[in-house]
Amino acid sequence: MTATGRITRLFRYATHDGPGIRMLVLMKGCPLRCPWCHNPEGQRPERQITHLAVKCTRCGRCETACPLPHKAAVRPNGTDILECSLQAARFCGFQQAEACTPDEKSVTLALHPAARPGCKLCGRCVEACPTGALQMVGADVSVEAILAMAQKDMPFYRASGGGVTVSGGEPLTQPEFVGEFLRQCRGLGIHTAIETCGFVPPEVLERLAQDVNLWLYDVKHVDPAKHERWTGRPCSLILRNLSALVERKAHIVARIPLIPGFNDRVGDVEAIASRLGQLGVTHVELLPFNPSFAAKWQALGRAVQWNHPPTPQPRPQIDLLRSIVDRHREK
Questions:
Q1: In the beta sheet, which residues pair with residue 253?
Q2: Domain boundaries, the chain
Q3: Long-range contacts of residues 36-39, Cβ cutoff 8 Å, at least 24 apart
Q4: pLDDT digits (tens, 9 = 90+) for 159-176
Q5: Which CATH architecture has domain 4-46+138-329?
């Protein structure tokens, strides 16, 4: 019997996170709590329901399907939200009704299943939703099932130099599933890659290392206090694990996600690049900020906690930071 794992999504024919055409498997669960995370649905290991406000017509079918007793969400003027949406402004975003000045974010969070005490994630609201505004995140799959998908795509991997990449969340929070999947892929001659935050037990890294062709290793900061303040974990274990992989002569691409106000200043990148150079890491990538993260947090019913300007760094800034990384790599 093969191991099972919990994933958030699976992409076939991806062209990023490793060379060539790839299968990208996103695992659920992560030890870090980065407030800028662009895959926040991958942080918690349990299943979750997302609510995409842009698709929601406020038809009320989710309310009807829910087996739990709950109070109706109320608009600022005292009118029941669902009643209003049906009678006055189904597609208007609550802007047409008289004396209505709603806070759209409050409306979204009020309607979110996570706002209902006692939710058992039965999924009835998801099944009842006619537009796909409600979605269940977190599917349990077997190694056998996703390996069968990968085998179908092997001609594309061979032609493009691609393979499979396991990301997340943090894939190494599910080492039995990921380890078995990678072993079987390697046995079939499929190129394997892991994208990791590095905050995992060293023995897990050691156990899986022989079946990983490429490590995509995130390094967010090397300042222990700053790293722990914003991610919830210190960076010491992350750097020790990275050093161990270098000693194994593993193929590593260290990736620095550039977060506005956290690590995208010259001094921050200088410190990170210097430490990577000392560790012997020779391949380093800069990842410009992804501004789409806020919508994903709101879809989970979670308030956005990172309030710095949600825009990618301009090209001149990226070029400057890249020159710093290159200088340390060449030393």
A1: 216
A2: 4-46+138-329, 48-137
A3: 36/259, 36/262, 36/289, 36/293, 36/306, 37/293, 38/290, 38/292, 38/293, 38/296, 39/8, 39/168, 39/169, 39/296
A4: 999 999 999 999 999 999
A5: Alpha-Beta Barrel (3.20)
